[in-house]
Amino acid sequence: MAGHAPSAAEQLIRQKLTKARELKEKGNEHFKQQQVKKAIQSYHSGLMYVKGIDQDLNPNKILGKCQDAPSLPQDVKEEVTDMSAHLHNNLAACLLKQEPVRYERVVSCCEHVTELRPQNIKGWYRLGLAHYHIRDYDKASDALKKANTLAAGQDMAVRKLLLSVDQELKKENKKFSDMFKNSLLVKPT
């Protein structure tokens, strides 16, 4: 915006966004060097700055909308949303590399990603992968179908995992069907 002098609150928010961006880049470097724990720490710290921005924008979220909450230019709001999505997605990638994998945390991170950026293929894929390992095949299928649609069927990892999920669903359906058949065959005594 030409002539727009940022308020003190907006300047503080921009500083927090810059710090979050720096921590994301630091996390990316750690991840490339296979330093997963350090990457997790960096991404988590970056998310704390993003959550601080959210608190700045919604100081009385619990009590209702605050009259004097700072307003931000749309491009800065988009940057905050993107940063949150990237940090959650990168954190999910790290969590998938830890042993043991805490799939519930991966699900939580990926739900943030897909809520903020519904077109994010990696977010949907990782969400599907986590649900697959939790053995929630219906949710895995839904997430992977979304990823497959977004990737126009061109992502081999998505297609391969979707086939595995479909096989598991067929096994579950057969098991359920067999149990139902057997319960009908049991004669009362």
From TrEMBL:
Highest taxon of source: Eukaryota
UniProt KW Isomerase keyword: yes
Class of this enzyme: isomerase
Catalytic activity: [protein]-peptidylproline (omega=180) = [protein]-peptidylproline (omega=0)
Entry annotated with the keyword rRNA processing: no
Enzyme nomenclature, EC number: 5.2.1.8
Gene3D superfamilies on file: Tetratricopeptide repeat domain
A molecular function GO annotation: peptidyl-prolyl cis-trans isomerase activity
Entry keyword set: Isomerase, Rotamase, TPR repeat
PROSITE patterns listed in its UniProt record: TPR
TPR repeats: 121-154
Coiled coil segments of this chain: none
Protein name: peptidylprolyl isomerase
Species: Petrolisthes manimaculis
